[in-house]
From TrEMBL:
Superkingdom: Bacteria
Gene3D superfamilies assigned: 3.30.930.30
Domain (MobA/MobL protein): residue spans on this chain: 42-215
UniProt KW keywords: Conjugation
Family: Belongs to the MobA/MobL family.
Region of interest: Disordered: 143-163
Name of the protein: MobA/MobL family protein
Species this protein is from: Pseudoxanthomonas putridarboris
UniProt keyword Disulfide bond present: no
One Pfam family of this chain: MobA_MobL
Stored InterPro entries: MobA_MobL
Length: 241
């Protein structure tokens, strides 16, 4: 069983353009040198096909207390690196984002602990749902007008949902992301699979691994790193160390 990781985040007013540049490794972010794939879609005509124009407008016109963007961060199977990667990412974006404006980037940094590839995709998207009405930027991000849609902004997909509905939607998105990865793994002849369920729901008794973070790893000695790796392997496979 491969590791499965799925996070959903959001950013407020003024954060979208900077995060877009981070995701796309633009400007000084390019020194990371870990960008594998990138793309965008469903942008309104006034952007000229430039995601930065879209996110700059979202930062400027989206209301102050609303989420300017949402972001999915999904771990991807390393065995699908190369040619099989783009079809998987495009399927994930199509199924999880749909018709909403989006930008994605796949990063492949090396793990701070073991040096292995950490392949994952960032998908930034707006909750504003296109409805076929052409709006200027300032109107697109204004409040939706149900009586006269053309006079208001695009409806937000996240509007009016209860906490229970939000939870159920997240579970469904996690499952869909895992199912798509498993479909592509099978298509390319790989036996490994991912599971979106918690360890408890999978019947696994071990505790979830603690995320150490690059700062803590940098402060660890070579001996501490080795002991941690051995303990992690033992916990995964039930081997007493």
């Amino acid at each position: 069983m491969a590791s499965f990781s799925f996070q959903i985040k959001s950013g407020g007013k003024g954060a979208a353009l900077g995060h877009s540049r981070y995701v796309a490794r633009q400007g000084y972010h390019g020194v990371r040198n870990d960008l594998v794939l990138s793309g965008y879609g469903n942008l309104p005509a006034w952007t000229g096909g430039n995601p930065e124009v879209f996110w700059a407008a979202a930062d400027r016109y989206e209301r102050a207390n609303g989420a300017v963007y949402r972001e999915l961060v999904i771990a991807l199977p390393n065995v699908l690196a190369g040619d099989p990667l783009r079809p998987l990412v495009e399927d994930l974006v199509h199924e999880l984002v749909g018709s909403r404006p989006y930008q994605y980037a796949v990063h492949a940094p090396s793990s701070s602990l073991q040096g292995e590839q950490n392949l994952h995709v960032h998908v930034m998207y707006s909750d504003r749902m296109p409805d076929g009405i052409e709006r200027p930027a300032e109107r697109m991000f204004s409040r939706f007008n149900p009586r006269s849609p053309a006079q208001g902004g695009c409806r937000k997909a996240s509007g009016g949902r209860s906490p229970m509905q939000v939870r159920d939607d997240l579970i469904a998105m996690r499952k869909r992301a895992a199912d798509l990865q498993n479909t592509h793994l099978a298509r390319h002849g790989h036996a490994v699979r991912v599971d979106h369920r918690s360890l408890r729901d999978q019947g696994v008794s071990r505790a979830p691994e603690r995320h150490l973070g690059p700062g803590l790893i940098r402060r660890m000695s070579a001996r501490q790193k080795g002991e941690y790796i051995l303990a992690r392997v033992g916990a995964r496979f039930g081997t007493p160390l």
